[in-house]
Amino acid sequence: MLAYNLVSWILIFCDLVLSAPTTLDSTAKGSSAQLTTDETRVDFNKIYEPSPPVTSHCFLTIRYFDELLQEYRLHTITIALYGSITPKTFGNFDKLAKGIVVPVGDSIPPKRVKVKYEGNSINKIIPGKSMLTGDVLYGIAKFSTLGPAWEEENFVLRHDRPGRVVMANEGTLGTLNSKFYIETSPEAQPEFDEKTVVFGQVINGLQELINISKNTKLDSESKPVNPMNIEHIIMAPLILGNIKDKQVTYLDRVGRYRKGELELGERLADLDTNVLSKEFIPLTDEQSALRAKQRGQAQSTSQLKELLVVISVIIFIVLTLNKYKREIFGKKVVSMRKY
């Protein structure tokens, strides 16, 4: 037990303390993610009506080809999800973000595959409008945890701000599946109110995402010429206490805001903790050098982590042999004494 606990704590230390990102991100100087223009600039100080309680955060990393740097890069956004307002929609998204195993095909026994958002392509980009993804069985069938097609549960949340995360239908109501899109217009898109379900909001990395969508080269079908996909997706549920009380408070604030109490509103800047997104500050040469140093440190940390894992295995073996040495070597010792 001592050996097991010791090794466990070493491995936990490696994961929590020594883990560090080792991939180039989208904040590099001169990248298309940093190319903000008046046409793409988001007003992070504009006042919007209050948001519902956030039940989960989703950390979604997109792999894209940077047309300016001529290389593939990663960009991570944080999405606030509103499971208390759209529980059915959230449940479907949450399961597909984590991945579920389903039977596919007509063979007996059927082939079982893991269906998930991770790895999905960005299928369509409408510059200044939206970015579509989430077709988990692309080219095979429409799929969701609620069936191949299901009804919109409500239209409580409006398309009143950039960065809305929305379920995509097939052109008519009642045809939802797994596909979703992110609104990349810097302005509201009220023409979609009462037509598609908003269930989340990009709260971090929004400006860069809009820049990327605007500067991505597309083919005649609005699909990225260079493959673009969801590289990683991680769900982080939040502990909210009494969600019903928070829901009542939210509905009260929304009602009062719509009656004219605008001081109850919120800004995207209040939700976004990414300074680069709010201030649109390009990296200086010093910052670029610092990032290069951080990448070197990350590589060293990764090597140290590997070394600690090896050491932990050796410790485990030594402690185990020490604990069970009588059982392992006992008969052999007695046999030597006998002769």
From TrEMBL:
Xref: Gene3D superfamilies: Cyclophilin-like
SUPFAM superfamilies named in the record: Cyclophilin-like
Highest rank taxon of the organism: Eukaryota
Residues in the signal sequence: 1-19
GO molecular function: cyclosporin A binding; peptidyl-prolyl cis-trans isomerase activity
Reaction equations catalysed: [protein]-peptidylproline (omega=180) = [protein]-peptidylproline (omega=0)
UniProt GO cellular component terms: endoplasmic reticulum; fungal-type vacuole
Assigned keywords, A-Z: Membrane, Signal, Transmembrane, Transmembrane helix
GO biological process, one term: protein folding
Domain PPIase cyclophilin-type span(s) in chain numbering: 64-235
Transmembrane parts of this sequence: 307-324
Pfam families the record matches: Pro_isomerase
The protein's name in its UniProt record: PPIase cyclophilin-type domain-containing protein
Gene label: TBLA0F04090
